[in-house]
């Protein structure tokens, strides 16, 4: 397991603490997840990314690492040149194209891709982009909510009224995604939501290795740990305690001022 901890702040006026952790889990022998955190470099933004790779041994980890790098580099180079939602959509599209280009030149990586969730923060405003079933949650003192909608075939059945959310949570095909970066997709579209981050709010972004095995109630309790670094560690531990059937990634963002 490895962890990252960074801050984005204007001393005395605004501060967001960010902590991330990534772990192979118990059942897998290699890690296809990738995470990244870019702290405020003086331009007034911070960026967090979680990617969950797929496509066979080694190919998935190549896809997720490539997506994290392309998205991070694009935002760092172009921040301020367009609205945050436009930047995120373009960054996801470029990441998908880069993954497909890599796969086209490597027979062993045919069909590789990854799910992705990323948060671009500018002071108290956050833009949350995702493709696939990597998720984002917002935890507040009065409750917790999922702020992304999974891009899966099972979720589509829920939206059509053919399955209940409870049925979807235990459906054997809940992991079959309908959107991702790469994987031969001609276009890697991101859904982007804008949310507010009030003092005391927490944002969690994670791969399905966490959300599939830890309930929303337990996630909220763990994210609420006094130390944000302790929160990301405990989330990984909770997923492993539940069997750790998949790679596990979590990044917690907390506004403290």
**What's the end-to-end separation, in Å?**
29 Å
CATH architecture: 4-Layer Sandwich
State the share of residues found in helices, binned by percent.
25-40%
Mean of residue pLDDT? 91
Q: How many helices?
A: 7
**At the fourth CATH level, what is the homologous superfamily?**
PPM-type phosphatase domain
What coarse outline follows from CA principal-axis ratios?
globular
How big a fraction of the residues is strand?
25-35%
Q: What class do helices, strands and sheet pairing give?
A: alpha+beta
Keywords:
7 helices; Phosphatase 2c, domain 1; 257 residues; alpha+beta; 12 strands
List the helices and strands and how they pair.
Layout: E1 2-10, E2 14-23, E3 33-38, E4 46-54, H1 59-78, H2 84-104, E5 113-122, E6 125-131, E7 135-140, E8 143-146, H3 153-159, H4 165-169, E9 181-182, E10 191-196, E11 202-206, H5 208-211, H6 216-223, H7 228-241, E12 248-255
Antiparallel strand pairs: 1-2, 2-12, 3-4, 4-5, 5-6, 5-9, 6-10, 7-8, 7-11, 11-12
Helix pairs in contact: 1-2
